[in-house]
Specification:
Order of helices and strands: HHHHHHHHHHHHHHH
CATH topology: Cytochrome C Oxidase, Chain A
Distance between the termini: 34 Å
Strand content: under 5%
Structural class: mainly alpha
Helix content: over 70%
Number of strands: 0
Mean pLDDT: 93
Shape: globular
CATH architecture: Up-down Bundle
C-alpha cells in the first residue's frame, strides 16, 4: 500500500514545511487577532468557551512559535543542510512523515487547548500525548539530517549546519525537561523548582530553538545574496559556542520578583548581560559580510526579510539584558512591555527571517520565480509596519502600567488608561493577518500554481 502523502519528490520535505508555515501563520495570527478583540471588547464574542482569552492566547502563542515560525525555520534547515553538504536528504519519506507529525502536534494542540485541556505553563500548555508527538518528530528530524550528514560529499561543516544540529538537539532536551514529560498527569513538578524549570524552558524555546535556526538561515542567505564569502568563520564559531554556553541558564530572569534563590538570580542577570557577546559576534560577522552590499540585500525579497530580521535581532537582544536588571524590571515586568518584547523576538526576529528564508529558497526548489514579487513586497511591508506598530504601542502601554503599579495603583484602575492602546493593537493586527493571508496565497501559488518563468536552480 502506497501512502501518497509520503511520496518521494525532490525537496518535498522543504516544500511541505513551507506550505505548513504559511497556513499556520494565517491561523496563528487569526488566533491572536481574536485575543486582541477580547482585550478591547470582552463581551463581543459572547464568551464562546473555545475562544475565551485563556484558551485563545495559548492557541496563538503555540501556533505561531511551532506552527508558523517553527515550520518555516525547519523547512529552511532541511534545505540548507543537504545543499551545504552536497548530499540528497537521507529519506524524503521520513521527512514527509515528520511534516505530518509536526502539523498534527500543532493541530491537536490547538484543538485540545480550545477544549480547555492544558498544562497551564508558558509555551508548554500542550498535554502529554502531544509532547510525545513533538519529541518523536524532533528525533526523526535529527536522525534524517544526521544520516544525510554522514553521507555528505562536502567535508567542511559550514556554521549553518552547526546551528541546525545544535537547535534540534537542544530543543529536544529543553522540551523534554521543560514539559516534565516524566510526569504525564500535570507536565510539571512542584513549588519554586517548577517555576525555575518552566522558565528554563520558556526562555529556551526562543533562544535554543528559534534563534539557532534563524541564525543558520541568515548565515546561509547573506553571503549568497551579497556574493561574497562570510567575513569570518572564526567569529561565527565564537558566536555559536558562546550562545550555547550562556543562553541555557538565563531563563530565571523572568522570576526575579519570586522567591528564586539569590545565586540563581545573579547567574541569570549576569548571563543575560553576557548575551551581548554571542549576539555581537553574530551581527558583526553578518553586517561586515554585507558591508558595501546592503543594496544587494534589498534587491531580493528574501534578502530584505533577512536583513530586517537581523535588525530586530539587535533590538531584541539589547532590550533583553536591559530588562533583566532588577531596577528596570520593577517597571517593565508583568505588563505589556514583556508582550512587546516577545513579539519582537518571535515575529520580528525569527519570524521575519523564516519568511526571508522561504522566499529565498522557493525559486531554488521550484525552478521558477515567485508567483508574485508584488505580493511578497506587500507582505514585507505589512509585517514590518505591523511589527513596528506592535512594538511601539505595547511598549508604551507597558510603561504606563508599570509606572502606575509602581505608584501604588491597582490593576483595574490602569485598564482605562491603556484601552486606547489595545484598540491600536487590534488595528495593527489587521496588517499582520492581511500579510499572512497574502503570504499563504503567494506561497501556495508558487508551489502549486501555473508554471511561470524559470527561476534559480
Amino acid at each position: 500500500m502506497k501512502f501518497e502523502f509520503l511520496k518521494e519528490e525532490p525537496h518535498g520535505t522543504t516544500k511541505a514545511f513551507f506550505l505548513s508555515s504559511a497556513v499556520w501563520m494565517v491561523l496563528g495570527t487569526t488566533f491572536g487577532f481574536i485575543g486582541a478583540i477580547q482585550l478591547v471588547a470582552p463581551e463581543l464574542l459572547a464568551n464562546i468557551p473555545w475562544v475565551v482569552f485563556s484558551r485563545i492566547r495559548p492557541m496563538h502563542t503555540n501556533a505561531v512559535i511551532f506552527g508558523f515560525v517553527g515550520s518555516g525555520l525547519i523547512g529552511c534547515a532541511h534545505y540548507l543542510v543537504y545543499t551545504l553538504l552536497r548530499s540528497p536528504l537521507y529519506s524524503e519519506k521520513m521527512g514527509k512523515l515528520t511534516v505530518w507529525m509536526w502539523n498534527l502536534a500543532v493541530l491537536f494542540g490547538s484543538l485540545t487547548l480550545s477544549r480547555g485541556y492544558s498544562q497551564t505553563r508558558e509555551y508548554a500548555e500542550w498535554i502529554w500525548p502531544i509532547d510525545i508527538l513533538v519529541l518523536a518528530a524532533l528525533a526523526l528530524m535529527f536522525y534524517n539530517l544526521f544520516q544525510t550528514a554522514r553521507r555528505r560529499q562536502e567535508k567542511l561543516l559550514y556554521v549553518s549546519v552547526w546551528y541546525v544540529f545544535a537547535g534540534l538537539v537542544f530543543t529536544f532536551f529543553i522540551y523534554f525537561f521543560g514539559n516534565a514529560v516524566w510526569n504525564p498527569a500535570t507536565g510539571s513538578i512542584t513549588g519554586m523548582p517548577d517555576g525555575i524549570l518552566a522558565w528554563f524552558y520558556g526562555h529556551g524555546i526562543v533562544g535554543l530553538f528559534l534563534t539557532p535556526l534563524a541564525v543558520a538561515i541568515a548565515y546561509y542567505v547573506i553571503p549568497i545574496v551579497c556574493r561574497v564569502p562570510l567575513y569570518s568563520h572564526t567569529l561565527s564559531l565564537l558566536g555559536f559556542w558562546s550562545i550555547l554556553m550562556i543562553y541555557t541558564h538565563i531563563g530565571a530572569h523572568h522570576i526575579l520578583q519570586a522567591p528564586t534563590p539569590t545565586w540563581l538570580k545573579v547567574i541569570a542577570i549576569t548571563g543575560s548581560v553576557a548575551m551581548l557577546l554571542p549576539v555581537s559576534a553574530v551581527l558583526v560577522n553578518l553586517w561586515l559580510t554585507m558591508r558595501g552590499r546592503v543594496a544587494n540585500m534589498h534587491a531580493t525579497i528574501g534578502g530584505k526579510f533577512v536583513f530586517a530580521g537581523t535588525l530586530w535581532y539587535l533590538l531584541t537582544c539589547l532590550q533583553g539584558p536591559l530588562q533583566s536588571l532588577p531596577s528596570v524590571q520593577k517597571v517593565t515586568h508583568f505588563n505589556n512591555w514583556v508582550v512587546a518584547h516577545a513579539h519582537m523576538g518571535v515575529l520580528g526576529f525569527s519570524g521575519v527571517i523564516a519568511l526571508g528564508g522561504i522566499y529565498f529558497i522557493l525559486p531554488r526548489i521550484t525552478g521558477r520565480s515567485l508567483h508574485s514579487e508584488f505580493l511578497a513586497e506587500m507582505q514585507y511591508w505589512l509585517v514590518l509596519v505591523g511589527m513596528a506598530g506592535f512594538f511601539t504601542v505595547l511598549t508604551v502601554a507597558g510603561l504606563i502600567q508599570g509606572h502606575g503599579w509602581l505608584q501604588g495603583e491597582t490593576v483595574y484602575r490602569m485598564l482605562p488608561q491603556i484601552h486606547i492602546y489595545m484598540v491600536l493593537r487590534l488595528a495593527i493586527g489587521v496588517l499582520i493577518v492581511s500579510g499572512a493571508i497574502l503570504g499563504l496565497y503567494n506561497i501556495f501559488m508558487t508551489l502549486h500554481g501555473s508554471r511561470g518563468k524559470e527561476g534559480s536552480s
